[in-house]
Design a protein that fits this description.
Elements (H helix, E strand, L loop, with lengths): L1 E2 L2 E2 L5 H28 L10 H46 L5 H23 L4 H26 L2 H27 L6 H21 L7 H21 L10 H8 L7
Antiparallel strand pairs: 1-2
Length: 263
């Protein structure tokens, strides 16, 4: 869903959750006011217990909250795992380069060093599409150059065995780039987040409306709004690929560590 041309994931998480928190408080206050009005007009008795309805709605909200958190966590794990897999595949291909003589190995390792630098730049680009595309393109050119050198060497009988080993590793190294570029954009569908927001507001309203006006507890409404806001903040932050507090910086360090192999 778009707000103008801006998606929900592009808006600062603090702003989104801050607005949600205010709406939760308003919903709770409105619920208590409506309960008081209903009791005064005789539309509902003071002792009427809405615990069943309130419990059902809160149960549905809790289920949806857990479901959304699971989706968000799964996508975060996919992004992190793809980075770790890439680091592993780069390391494997780089080690196999040692099977070639010094003359060829020096050239290939030089291109590998540039390739790793571009893959690090790809992560550091954040949400800058121009930098992302440049790093992706330049890294691809380095990978193509490495492939051309390896296939050329493979035409010589004495290097054919080494080429048969490194060729699959280079293919896997290139494949994981495509996978990683795809999963970085995977997020929880915004329609699901909007439903989650709606359920949270309805739940806050029912907490306010569920208790008799004489037995209302403002602290309870504040606590509910706070805990719901914190939970949804974590879900949204976890679901933002390249922004927010929760990042895949730790996984990217595995690729950064590969640079030490060139020292």
């Amino acid at each position: 869903m778009l707000i103008g041309k801006i998606t929900l994931h592009q808006i600062d998480t603090t702003v989104v959750v801050g607005i949600l928190f205010v709406l939760l408080i308003i919903a709770y206050v409105f619920g208590t006011k409506l309960r008081k009005f209903s009791e005064r007009k005789g539309m509902i008795h003071q002792d009427t217990d809405l615990g069943t309805v309130e419990g059902a709605l809160l149960g549905l909200f809790a289920f949806f909250l857990a479901f959304t958190f699971s989706m968000s966590g799964s996508r975060f794990d996919s992004r992190r795992d793809s980075i770790i897999q890439e680091a592993t595949k780069i390391g494997t291909a780089l080690n196999l380069v040692d099977m070639y003589p010094d003359s060829a190995r020096t050239s290939i390792r030089g291109h590998f060093k540039k390739y790793v630098d571009y893959r690090i730049a790809y992560f550091d680009a954040g949400i800058d599409d121009d930098k992302l595309n440049t790093a992706l393109k330049e890294g691809g050119l380095q990978a193509d150059t490495i492939w051309k050198i390896v296939t050329h060497l493979g035409k010589e009988e004495k290097y054919s065995a080494a080429t048969r080993l490194i060729a699959p590793a280079l293919n896997e190294m290139s494949d994981i780039v495509v996978i990683r570029d795809a999963v970085k954009n995977e997020t929880v569908p915004e329609s699901i987040l909007w439903v989650l927001f709606l359920l949270s507001i309805c739940s806050s309203f029912m907490v306010g409306y569920g208790a008799s006006w004489k037995n209302r507890n403002s602290v309870a409404g504040f606590v509910v709004a706070t805990m719901i806001s914190i939970s949804i903040y974590l879900i949204i932050d976890l679901d933002k690929p390249r922004r927010g507090l929760i990042t895949t910086e730790g996984a990217n360090q595995k690729i950064v560590e590969i640079k030490s192999l060139f020292d």
